[in-house]
Design goal:
Pfam families: FMO-like (PF00743). InterPro entries: FAD/NAD-bd_sf, Flavin_mOase, Flavin_mOase-like, FMO-like. Keywords: FAD, Flavoprotein, NADP, Oxidoreductase. This is FAD/NAD(P)-binding domain-containing protein. The protein has about 500 residues and is of the alpha/beta class. The chain has three domains: about 240 residues, FAD/NAD(P)-binding domain (3-Layer(bba) Sandwich); about 110 residues, FAD/NAD(P)-binding domain (3-Layer(bba) Sandwich); about 60 residues, no CATH class. Helix 2 crosses helix 8. The chain is globular, with a radius of gyration of 25 Å. It starts with 5 loop residues before the first helix and ends with a helix. The model has no long low-confidence stretch (mean pLDDT about 95).
């Protein structure tokens, strides 16, 4: 009887393992892709050598939108402007598995956040799974092998560069949705863009003089920041956003106006608002109007770029309306018939959320469905989708665009959503220790007050003193230190507000 040498036996065993190994593709190595990688590497299947994971990142390094780049591409590689800081305090923004360093400013600058990602990836040994400067060109389901054919090529100006095709069992889309500018369909805007009188905020980096009168459209976080900065370099700042009160401040230097109904003559700088009033003499317009969902690697037969038809019934095809991706079970899994829902996951589509924790929790749900496809009940998920549609329809009527815009919006809804995902995952994650902590909700509800007061501390030069040494205890004690700091900042805001009220009352009695 011939005995095989140990090396041959080991080779056969390795071949058996490789035959059973499942391959996971992650598209993007920004905040969501990194969080997804970390959770995959924590899984017992990965540790047992049964899973292999690769993240494809089109840019030269990890970080996604937080990796700076000049606004020379069309669209720019990132919309990140020079003064950008987080708009969520880092103790609740951080990945739950990895806090920011002690003493970090409560709303850190972009480069601090980028360093945080680098440290996170290094701490959890994620860099080895990331292929940078590699663009995913096409992702298509092959039913003959029940796998995804993923075609990639080096990032560059030509999509026809030599490509490579790899089979994957699971594709996780984590490419973000802050790349392709969303332009409002306002009549006349095209003429302003062509005349160089308007630009999307994706190209904005810092305040520059563009004339005495500047119009900023949109009041999301970037719209507020851009308007505040442009006030310093122009004589009149007009800030247009839906339901804005028609008010003038600082002697007319700042004007709040409602939604724009039409961009009129660009040379005269005239615009007409929905209330019928007009402004003239606008020298420049910055459009902080958001970004559209872009999944260019999914072919048209898998993803149609259009508004989905009204429901019920649930469409059998996946749609990208620019404002939302539909239909998705649990806002993650395509509920379609052309491929199994458990084999493709779209992460972090909801907005008005705390994004980093989302990546970790959603990925746990993805891996649950991947390992146990029957855990996803298509009938139940369809009912949930129809229920959400009816709720939004009651609010917006038959306005399908308004429904699409609101579909991924969460805000307070994010917390029970994350808890429900952990219940779906089950096991230890269904326990109370994995529920969103009460203190996170407490800070979330005070986020406007907290950020405004922190800006005041930054303005008067006291911010660094407030965070000195905070969090150095680490673990739960470090978290308590950060919570106590945030409560102190909120209390300071309340005290200052009370003092103003007292002073106003005294003035009124004089």
């Amino acid at each position: 009887m011939d005995l095989l040498p140990n090396s041959a036996i080991d080779s056969e065993r390795q071949a058996d393992v490789d035959a059973l190994k499942k391959r996971i593709c992650v598209i993007g190595a920004g905040p969501t892709g990194l969080g997804s990688l970390k959770v995959i590497c924590d899984a017992p299947q990965y540790k047992d050598g049964l899973w292999d994971v690769t993240a494809f990142e089109a840019r030269e390094a990890i970080g996604g939108v937080w990796l700076p780049a000049p606004p020379v591409d069309n669209p720019p590689l990132t919309p990140m402007y020079d003064s950008l800081t987080t708009n969520i305090p880092h103790p609740i923004m951080a990945y739950p598995s990895y806090p920011f360093p002690p003493g970090t400013l409560l709303y850190p600058a972009a480069l601090t956040v980028l360093q945080y990602f680098t440290d996170y990836a290094t701490h959890f040994d994620l860099h080895k799974h990331v292929r940078v400067r590699t663009t995913v060109r096409n992702v298509d389901w092959d039913p003959s092998v029940s796998q995804w054919r993923v075609r990639t090529s080096p990032t560059g100006p030509s999509p026809d560069a030599p490509s490579e095709e790899t089979l994957f069992d699971l594709v996780i889309v984590a490419n973000g949705h802050y790349r392709v500018p969303l332009y409002p369909p306002t009549p006349g805007l095209k003429a302003w863009l062509e005349a160089g009188k308007a630009v999307h905020a994706a190209w904005y980096r810092h305040a520059e003089y563009h004339g005495d009168t500047v119009l900023v459209v949109g009041r999301g976080p970037s719209g507020i920041d851009v308007a505040d900065e442009m006030c310093e370099v122009c004589k009149t700042l007009i800030h247009s956003f839906p339901e804005a009160p028609r008010e003038d401040h600082n002697g007319g230097a700042v004007k709040f106006r409602g939604r724009i109904a039409e961009f009129l003559d660009p040379h005269e700088g005239r615009v007409r608002f929905e209330d019928g009033t007009e402004e003239a003499g606008v020298d420049y317009c910055i459009l902080a109007t958001g970004y559209e969902h872009s999944l260019p690697f999914l072919p048209p037969h898998l993803l149609e770029r259009a508004l989905p038809p009204p429901i019920p019934p649930i469409p059998e095809k996946l749609y990208n309306s620019k404002f939302h991706i539909f239909p998705l079970a649990k806002q993650i899994f395509p509920l379609v018939t052309s491929f199994p829902p458990s084999r493709l996951a779209l992460l972090a589509l909801p907005y008005r959320i705390i994004p980093f924790p989302f990546a970790e929790v959603q990925t746990r749900a993805v891996l649950k469905a991947f390992t146990d496809p029957d855990s996803l009940d298509p009938a139940r998920e369809a009912v949930d989708i129809v229920s959400r549609y009816e709720e939004l329809r009651a609010q917006f009527g038959d306005n399908e665009v308004a429904i699409a815009r609101a579909w991924h919006k969460m805000e307070e809804e994010q917390f029970p959503y994350l808890d429900s995902l952990h219940q779906f995952v089950g096991g230890e994650y269904a326990g109370p220790q994995w529920k969103v902590p009460d203190w996170v909700l407490e800070i979330w509800y005070q986020k406007v007050t907290l950020r405004a007061e922190w800006k005041e501390l930054v303005r008067i030069g006291e911010a660094e003193k407030w965070v000195e040494g905070v969090g150095k205890s680490g673990g739960e004690e470090g978290t308590k230190e950060w919570l106590e700091l945030m409560r102190r900042v909120i209390k300071r805001a309340e005290q200052r507000k009370a003092e103003v009220s007292i002073d106003t009352a005294k003035m009124n009695r004089l």
